[in-house]
């Protein structure tokens, strides 16, 4: 028969750290190791999840542009011309295509939180929509809004590389799809057969940033522009000149938040390309990029904008 002292010995089969019930417990070192493993796994998985979300947004965005392309081609079937659009035109391109696309421009259906209503998503890039306040009435433009101050997800190639050249009169080239504003105030529309290579002519795409606000920094309230060629003036999308100012870094950061810094661009034949902004907007050093903006498939670098922001 064992002695009472022998029965009083603690059970050491689970180590020194035991709960009162006798089940094993974590030591502090073990707990720290578990936390460290979880942190490492999170660090490995979160970038992958972010890339997956960005890829999903890009896929939805491509589908939106294809829907817009279908609307454009239905319009072409009816009129054999591209949508007229200038910064003084009373009917923006998205209003003209509304019956064909079956959706309204996001500015018309803002919720109180600044997000878009899901049922009107064709004109709404999901990457933009994750940033509250994107679709605004324009910088300091009161309602009813002036149509020159419209910002949103997608832009239209209305003037090609000749920034605002279409406003100067009937002798200036109408390089884009929006036509040319004549001295009479009328707009000469671009006929379908004027586009030499539809598979190499940009029509619509993810908007570039609008110029920075009064504080010098781009932010959610002025992100996006209905005029796609404004991206040619964005120095953060160029290989030249360089520059690492805080303003340029801020703009690049915003681009990075949507589609990992890439753009979806739709061409006149309906196909969509997905690439870095410089592949579409860096026109000055690359004639092959510049000619994709113009109906005659020529670069017209003498007319390309030399300024920037």
What's the rounded overall pLDDT mean? Answer: 75
Strand order of the largest sheet: 1-4-5-6
Which strand-content bin applies to the residues?
5-15%
Q: What's the number of extended β-strand segments?
A: 6
Tally of separate domains: 1
Distance between the termini: 94 Å
- SS summary, helix count: 8
Percentage of residues in helical conformation = 25-40%
In this structure, how is the largest beta sheet organized?
Answer: 4 strands, antiparallel
| Overall outline | elongated
SSE order in H/E notation?
HHHHHEEEEHEEHH
Uncertain regions: pLDDT < 50 for 5+ in a row? Answer: 137-149, 164-171
Which structural class best describes the helix and strand composition?
Answer: alpha+beta
- Rg over alpha carbons: 28 Å
């Amino acid at each position: 028969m064992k002695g009472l002292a022998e029965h009083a010995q603690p059970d050491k089969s689970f180590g020194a750290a035991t709960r009162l019930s006798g089940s094993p417990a974590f030591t502090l070192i073990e707990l720290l190791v578990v936390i460290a493993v979880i942190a490492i796994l999170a660090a490995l998985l979160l970038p992958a999840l972010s890339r997956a979300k960005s890829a999903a947004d890009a896929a939805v965005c491509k589908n939106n542009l294809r829907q817009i392309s279908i609307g454009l081609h239905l319009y072409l079937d009816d009129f054999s011309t591209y949508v007229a659009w200038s910064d003084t035109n009373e009917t923006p391109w998205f209003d003209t295509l509304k019956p064909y696309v079956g959706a309204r421009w996001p500015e018309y259906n803002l919720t109180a939180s600044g997000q878009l209503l899901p049922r009107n998503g064709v004109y709404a890039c999901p990457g933009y929509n994750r940033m509250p306040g994107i679709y605004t009435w324009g910088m300091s433009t009161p309602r009813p809004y002036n149509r020159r101050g419209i910002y949103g997800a997608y832009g239209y190639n209305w003037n090609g590389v000749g920034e605002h050249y279409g406003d100067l009169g009937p002798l200036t080239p109408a390089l884009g799809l929006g036509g040319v504003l004549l001295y009479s105030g009328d707009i000469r529309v671009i006929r379908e057969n004027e586009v030499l290579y539809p598979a190499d002519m940009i029509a619509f795409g993810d908007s570039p940033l609008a110029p920075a606000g009064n504080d010098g920094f781009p932010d959610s309230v002025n992100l996006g522009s209905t005029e796609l060629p404004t991206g040619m003036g964005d120095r953060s999308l160029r290989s030249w000149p360089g520059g690492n100012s805080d303003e340029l870094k801020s703009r690049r950061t915003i681009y990075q938040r949507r589609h990992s810094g890439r753009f979806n661009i739709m061409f006149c034949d309906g196909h969509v390309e997905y690439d870095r902004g410089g592949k579409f907007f860096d026109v000055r050093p690359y004639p092959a990029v510049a000619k994709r903006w113009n109906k005659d498939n020529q670069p017209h670098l003498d007319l390309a904008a030399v300024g920037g922001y």
